[in-house]
Amino acid sequence: MTLKLGVNIDHVATLRRARQAAYPDPLAAAELCLCTGADYIVIHVRNDDRHMTEKDLARLCKVYRKYIHLECNSSEKMQKMALKYKPFSVCIVPELPGEVTTTGGLKFTPKAFDRIRQMTEALQKKGILVSLFINPDAASVRTAAKCGADIVELCTKEYSEAKTQKQQAKLLRELALASLLAKELGLEVHAGHGLDYDNVLPVADLCGMSCMNIGFSIISRAVLAGLPNAVCAMKELL
Questions:
Q1: Residue-range domains of the chain with CATH
Q2: Less Cβ around it within 10 Å: N or C end of the chain?
Q3: What are the pLDDT digits (tens) for 7-60?
Q4: Nearest Cα to 112, choosing from 93, 99, 97?
Q5: From the candidates 11, 44, 51, 69, which is the catalytic residue?
């Protein structure tokens, strides 16, 4: 089975911001990705607008709405933004001030659970699919199902950063068990964070897995090989 590929183009906007320029244009990057194998375009709009902005989301949804997968935190501000532009799907992710990148899955405290469930229901009422970015453990999978999510995205950060083959194998087993449980609970299963051309296949081969969301490694290769070549190479692996 060919897995779906979501290409995160945040770092196209990072490069644009480095010079406070109008280019490279995320809309042009999205077009190239979709023309060369990407199934979805992933963008993360953060509170600090460090790369993608609400304006980017508006432009991308105007042209490619049915391919846009928005990552955002669970604040009311982000909920209103998502409801305004109506991307195809939204992944609710944790967000900490000053973090370089997302550090792990959602923490389901009672307060957070209620807020995430409320946001999930609001988005689904407008026809937007909801994904929750979670750690690959049984408790998180079950809680995501209780929240009413359509999709879970399993965090592969620890797997991707494993220092030894033994450690990586252990973490891969955890991902496998989480994927199976999510599938049994009727959830679509995605994976992402730190995946690259060398480590993606074991995760892609897991039973129940349907989509890989990958950004940094593809954009990094694109700097040297070109974006179409980078996307094609990843799609061929999957």
A1: 4-237 (3.20.20.70)
A2: N
A3: 999 999 999 999 999 999 999 999 999 999 999 999 999 999 999 999 999 999
A4: 93
A5: 44
